Amino acid sequence: MRVEIEPGVRLFFDVEGAGLVPMDDGTLCRRPTVILLHGGPGMDHSGWKPRMSPLADVAQLIYYDHRSHGRSDRGPSSEWTLDRWADDIVLLCEALEIERPIVFGQSFGGMVAQRYIERHPGHPAKVILSSCSPHFGLERKLAAFDRRGGAAAREAARAYWADPSPASFDAFLRICLPLYSTTPQADRSAPSSAAFDGELLDSWNRNELPHVDLLPGLARAACPVLVFGGADDPITPIEDQRDIAAALPAHLVRYVEFANAGHGVWRDKPVEAMAMLREFITA
């Protein structure tokens, strides 16, 4: 399904789980709505499925593709900014008549969620920040790839960010992507041609990512925020999660660090991660 969030701009979205659930006494119980912000940029919402489906018995899940991603309308490159993507969360909620959502951002989606906290602090009921960074932090990333994959991984990562291009990205996928997770059985395949937009990703890495600093805006948070990540994550190193937690108001933040886990903790620690998410969503 697609919904128009402003004239000429439609976002693709999908829904899993009921928002209103019938009770034994005949009344309807309202469940919280969780809006899932996918990673990337240049990807789509499919990376969430079916991993998040177990949460559909405690919340209504809204998957969507960011503006210019996946099945959503593609806009000009001038719209490929954190500010625009963050504001789109509010516009989507207005279009779907969602009030007080729980906003759940993974990786790049977590960067969007951080900017959303800064620009719209009174909008969410809760925010979840998973495996994300508040800034580029290249040296941390290179050191983390070196720890996980040695000099070859460090060099592949350095070469890609020095000159984002299809050729350097191919090497990055081949050498670095398998290091994102700590368990061989974790589903960590290369992006499919149907979902992946290399032009958008290269533009982000060249033009906006090097200048991002989300830490100051986190002080504006006005709702509970769960921050969690894997200690062995090379792409959003665990030090980044610690910085995010420290920048949030202390009385609102919950921080959880998972040992022996990588990028997207539920891939390596699915039982523990899902239990934590269910508890935070329903609390």
What features would you describe in this structure?
It comes from Roseateles toxinivorans. The protein has 283 residues and is of the alpha/beta class. The chain has a single domain, classed as Alpha/Beta hydrolase fold, catalytic domain (Rossmann fold), CATH 3.40.50. The protein has helices spanning 82-96, 108-119, 138-162, 166-175, 198-207, 238-247, 265-268, 270-282, and strands at 2-6, 9-16, 20-22, 28-30, 33-37, 60-64, 102-106, 126-130, 225-230, 253-258. It has an 8-stranded mixed β-sheet. Strands 3-4 form a two-stranded antiparallel sheet. Helix 2 links the parallel strand 7 and strand 8 (126-130). Helix 1 (82-96) packs across helix 2. The longest helix has 25 residues, at 138-162. The protein starts with a strand and ends with a helix. The mean pLDDT is 94.
* CATH T-level fold name: Rossmann fold
* Mean pLDDT rating: 94
Helix content: 25-40%
Strand count, sense and closure of the main sheet?
8 strands, mixed
Concise synopsis of the structure shown:
The protein has 283 residues and is of the alpha/beta class.
